[in-house]
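Go through this:
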Amino acid sequence: RRAKPPSPVLPDGTARPLAARLVRHPRELPPDDAARLAVVFAEITWRATRGGAQRFDEARAFWLGYYATFGNRPEDYDLLVLVEDGDRVVSVLAINLVTVDIGCLFWLHFAYTEPEYQGRGVLRIATATLSSVSAELPSPTYAVCRTLNPTVYDIMLGAAGAVPERTTTFHPQLTADGDAVAAPDETRRLATRIAQVLSPTCDYDPTHFVIRGFFSEIRHLIGLRYPPSRSAATNRYFERHCDYARGDGALIFYTLR
C-alpha cells in the first residue's frame, strides 16, 4: 500500500515550499531514471484525472502502459518540468518543439498535478521555469495546447499575460458569456493549421476554437469533471462549447516569440 503523502501545508498553516526543475534534454536521461519517471508520470496522471475513483485498476494499468510506449515515454519529449516537494514529484509538464510550415510549436502535451496540490499555483511555478527557454526559440514560435481542463486555460492565459505584447495574441479570448471572441481571418487560418498538426484525425470548430473528440479514446478513464476555473467566463466556455462526454477540448495558443 502506498504511504500517505505529506500534507502540502506545514503545521503553522503555510504552504510547503516547492521547487521546479527543468529537464532540458530528456533523451539523455539514464534508462533507469527514465523508467522510474515513467511510473511517476503514470501515478500522478491517474490520480489527477480521477480515473482511479471508479476504475482504479484499469486507469492505473492504462497510464503505466501509456508512459512506457514509444512517443509517450519521458525521454521522448523535448522538455520536462518537475515540481517537487522535497524528494517527491507533485506535478509534471511535458513539452515538444515541433517545426512546421507556420513556424515552431511549443506544444504543451500535458500538465498534471497531484490532487492535494491542485489550486495552490503549482503549475504557475512550473510554467515560470520555462521562461528561460523562450529566448532560445526561433521566430515565430507559438505556445499551443489542447485541453479539457478549464484551469489549463487560466494557466496559459496567465503565461501569456506575463509579457504584455503576448496578451493580444492569445486565443481564444472570451466574452463574459463564455463565447470565443471573433478572430480575424488570418488568426482563424493559423488556428486551423495548428489544430491539424495537433489532432490531424479530428474535426475542428474554428468559431469556438474546439477540437472535437481528441480525447475520446480514454475519456472513460477520466473523472466526471476537472476542477472549475476561478473565472465564470472560462467555465461557461467549456460548458457551452466543449462536449466533455465526447472528449472535446479547447485549442489554446499565443505567440511566444
Observations:
- The beta strands are 19-23, 79-85, 88-100, 103-113, 141-147, 204-205, 210-211, 249-255.
- The chain is about 35% helix and 20% strand.
- The chain has a mean pLDDT of 88.
- The first helix runs from residue 31 to 48.
